[in-house]
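Section 3.1: Structural characterization of target chains.
Under the original work plan, the team committed to producing a structural model for every single-chain target entering the pipeline before any wet-lab resources were allocated. The record below documents one such target. The sequence was received from the expression subgroup and is listed exactly as submitted; it comprises 360 residues.
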Amino acid sequence: MPTEEYFARFPPFPSDVPVVQLECLSFTKLLANDTAERQRLFQACQDIGFFLVNLRGTDEGETMLKHAERAFKLTEQIHKLDQDELKQYAFKPPADLFGYKSVGDMKLEDGSPDRMAFYNLSQDDILGNTPSRPAPAIVETHRPKFRAFFQHAHLILSRLLSHLDALLGLEDGTLSSLSPLDKASGTSLRLLKALPSASDTKPRTDLVGHTDLGSITMLFNVIGGLQILPPSASEKPSDSDWRFVRPMPDCALINLGDAMVQWSGGVVRSNMHRVATAPGAQKGVERLSVAYLLRPALETFMQRLKGGTIDAGEEEEEDICARDWEGMRAAQIVKGENKPGSIGGKKAAIMVARGEIVAN
């Protein structure tokens, strides 16, 4: 999340709401290949698939925080544009997920309209992998800033994925190579806004519970509202089962997606999460957030990888590329054949030898 100075502009997160306890890892220690920190990362990837990374203390981390704050300012400006202008760039799911989604375009579990708006920027568009898409003038003017965000966010996630390579017994660079910057993909920068609520409004869901379809996501936010369904929750959870994520200054919130579960043979976890009414006094302010959603290159094959902690599996897997796999998963959800739910988290042992973590 952005810096403490940015947090000071908004009401504080309340101390009397149920929160999920997440690991907060040091990016500095991870860059130094600290063995204990890498173990904590692997445990978080298996247990819940979510963790925080404190970006203070390194040039790479500090730069990422600056990019995040710039993205927050641009998110605010984009959502202040007239609705008629924004709807000229409306996204058209499931064929096209880039562009503007207005409040109410999606439905919640009970059929009521959602309360989230977002502008979804295509990495391929911003980096020039594909022809430029029509966009509002503010996006055109600030393409260099968005380009820098994409490039640096990919670098940060590649650093994290290199540790997961080692923990899974894979060759260094394996996971990041499946979602490269220069290959066509569904990777996006999502600039989100949730509407404020009146002080007497009962808590409700703003965005339906789901897992992320892609590889890995990096989120920056200041206002609460994101909730995680703990692994201990029942198969038919009630609202009381969900736990808020407390936004933390100087940190990015990281979560693994369904593609990572597929590649790891279920070793890591992709966990259910949703957006609800912000708690306490925070409900009265607009909730902005910035999410970098890294997805596999469209032609990447989705079979489980070969590695020390990855079970080879007994069934022969079908050759299917990410483009078709993502389309198939989306169609299954639309038809009700694949209801949202947490997946993965199969326990795999690791051991520490000579200061390095290796698969066992």
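The radius of gyration is 20 Å.
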